[in-house]
Amino acid sequence: GALQNFGLITYHKRPYDLLIDNQLKALKDYLFDNRDLNKFLVRSVHFTENHDEKPAHEAFSSSERALAAAVILYALPGYTLVTLRQLFSMGTPKGAVMEMKSPDAGIYRYKYPDIRNRRAQVVPHLSELLQLISKPVFRGEGLFKVELQGGENIDRIYSIVRHEKKSNAIVLANYSGMRSLARLDLGAIAGENPEVSRAIINSGSRTVFSSAGADYSIVNKELSVELPAYGSGIFHFESSSSPAVGRSAYGGSSPVVQ
Questions:
Q1: What is the C-alpha separation between 56 and 167, in angstroms, rounded?
Q2: CA 236 to CA 207: how far, in whole Å?
Q3: What does the pLDDT look like over 190-228, one tens digit per residue?
Q4: So what's the pLDDT on residue 245?
Q5: I want to staple 107 with a disulfide (CB 3.0 to 4.6 A). Which of 97, 101, 103, 212 is the partner?
Q6: How many beta carbons lie within 10 A of that of residue 224, not counting itself?
């Protein structure tokens, strides 16, 4: 944090390294054992791919695991870095002459997609995720740990709440190759912060972004979620006078609130 004391915004690579090494528990401990960390996070840049590392789907061994890591890292307070080559899922072209890990430091020919073709512009699930995490609730300091009430394989589920004055978001990511189930008590979602629970329960609108194959239900203030391997779900609650519910699946249609 020394550089931040001079007003600079810095890369934050430790969460990335922990996810690459599959150290989810270590990441949870790191994020929530230090109460002053949020002040550092809001002036940090988070990424799953940059000019010094391999393309995300190669570094994380699969596009599904890379997306789960993106949900975890992009939902942290601070700034999000997404490179152009990541949006196009360029990877490492065959025959590239490599000078570093990233193809940014390679020499090769590449034909960019026609930007007039919507389907060729970006990786669909990443595009939808970026639309959601650009909302104010994800960029401030409000970050709380969520204790899961039960389920299956819950030690491999990353669970947080993001909070700001007008909206809240529950972020869940199954960082494992097994299907996982979890239950959350919305009445006690943020521990010692009952105002967050009240805001979620009394919210006027809800938008859900989830991986294909994920399922959820909210009954009697309990959220039950079933996530496929490396699946995720983001539940965004906003204050509104006109209740509404919408849903979008990563890789599916554009986000819509109905």
A1: 30
A2: 5
A3: 777 788 888 888 887 788 888 888 999 988 889 999 999
A4: 39
A5: 97
A6: 16
